[in-house]
Recover the amino acids of this structure.
């Protein structure tokens, strides 16, 4: 796997003014003059995220399924109950990278949050039934913590294919499980970036 750190060297100002309602693709958010390099960096980011999420899913031989009524149940898909549940990991990652309108560092922070969630709650161990919702909720929390400009949750819900009420619940659960500790120090960031 290529060193991911290079992808995050120039994440400042990748995205300029946003108009809120539109969902541009990756080509539309790359500043002029940097198209080839920036598009290649986005493709590498997408490939690295897909590879990482697939590896997280593959390493689970035992899955803890939460019982009805537990907050963690919301992370488990209901086999096609939302458009996202019918998507592949690659499709969700591509949509998130191109339409969440956030820096590349946010996606790395989301992976760090997912790791913290796994350590705090056995029902949030990444598996094929919860990976998409865990990833989406972790991106949302990371985006709100790290970015200056954010959108309403209705935008993120529309882009991700999740119901707004569900996305709000997922966000609250992630924040509570993280005990509202979203700060990622340089050592933790670099350790994940170098994988």
């Amino acid at each position: 796997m290529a060193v991911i750190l290079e992808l995050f060297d120039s994440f400042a100002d990748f995205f300029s003014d946003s108009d809120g309602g539109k969902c541009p693709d990756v080509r539309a958010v790359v500043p002029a003059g940097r198209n080839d390099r920036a598009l290649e960096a986005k493709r590498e980011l997408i490939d690295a995220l897909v590879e990482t999420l697939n590896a997280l899913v593959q390493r689970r031989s035992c899955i803890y399924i939460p019982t009805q009524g537990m907050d963690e149940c919301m992370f488990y898909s209901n086999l096609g109950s939302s458009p996202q549940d019918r998507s592949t990991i690659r499709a969700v990652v591509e949509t998130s990278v191109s339409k969440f309108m956030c820096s590349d560092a946010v996606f790395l922070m989301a992976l760090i949050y997912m790791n913290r969630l796994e350590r705090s709650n056995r029902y949030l161990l990444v598996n094929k039934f919860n990976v998409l919702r865990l990833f989406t909720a972790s991106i949302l929390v990371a985006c709100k913590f790290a970015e200056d400009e954010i959108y309403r949750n209705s935008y993120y819900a529309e882009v991700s294919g999740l119901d707004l009420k569900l996305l709000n619940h997922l966000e609250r659960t992630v924040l509570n499980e993280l005990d509202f500790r979203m700060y990622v120090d340089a050592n933790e960031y670099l350790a994940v970036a170098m994988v």
